[in-house]
Amino acid sequence: NAGVTQTPKFQVLKTGQSMTLQCAQDMNHNSMYWYRQDPGMGLRLIYYSASEGTTDKGEVPNGYNVSRLNKREFSLRLESAAPSQTSVYFCASSEIRVWGQPQHFGDGTRLSIL
Amino acid sequence: SQQGEEDPQALSIQEGENATMNCSYKTSINNLQWYRQNSGRGLVHLILIRSNEREKHSGRLRVTLDTSKKSSSLLITASRAADTASYFCATVSDEGGSQGNLIFGKGTKLSVKP
Fold first, then answer.
1. Do A105 and B42 touch (CB under 8 A)?
2. Among B7, B37, B101, the residue to mutate for chain A (most A Cβ within 10 A)
3. For the segment A51-84, what is each residue's pLDDT rounded down to a tens digit?
4. Which of A9, A67, A88, B110 has the smallest set of CB atoms within 10 Å of its CB?
5. Whose CA is closest to A58, among A76, A35, A78?
6. Is the pLDDT of residue B96 over 80?
C-alpha cells in the first residue's frame, strides 16, 4: 500500500537547468496538490488539480508548470531552475477537493539549485 | 499567506508529560486539521475538527476549537519519544480563488526526551 510516491527523493541542479518532479498515488483520489516547504515558512501551495483534466494555480505558481497526466499522476516542472526554488517539494492527494478533505502526502523531493 | 500560526515554535518535554500546542487563525473556517511531520518525511493527517465542534479525541490526542477566539489546541497526553515531530495546523480557506484549499501554519517542533 504505497499511498503517494514521489521521485526522485533528492536532486541537485544548476541554475537554468530544467527538471520534472514525478508524483503518483494509488488511492484512486480525484484531487492532487504540489507544495513547497521552506524553513520557517510552513507549506505553500504551488498548483493543484481538483480532478483529472484540470489544473489551477496556488499561492506560489511562478516558475512552475504542472501536468495531470491521468488520475494517478501529477507532475511538476521547473523550466529554468533558480536558486530561490531550492526547497523540499511535497505532493499530496485527497479524495475530492471539497472544504479541506484530509490530504495524504508523499515523502518529498529535496531539491537544491546551485 | 499563512492562515494558521502555531505556538510555541518549539517545545521540549520529558517522556510521560503532556504536550500542548496552540493554533490561531484569522478568518472564518469550515474545519481545522492537525498534521504531524517526522523528520525527513511527509505530513500525516492526525485529526479534523469541524467549525460546529468544540472538542474531539483520537487516542492520546485531544483537540479543542474556539471559533470565537479563532484558536485551536492540540494536546498529546502521556507523550512518548516517538511523538517527536513537527505539528502543523491547517485551515480551509474560504477566500476567493483559493477557496477550499488548505492553508498551513509554520508548525510547532516537539521534542520528547526519554
1. yes
2. B101
3. 999 999 999 999 999 999 999 999 999 999 999 9
4. A9
5. A35
6. no
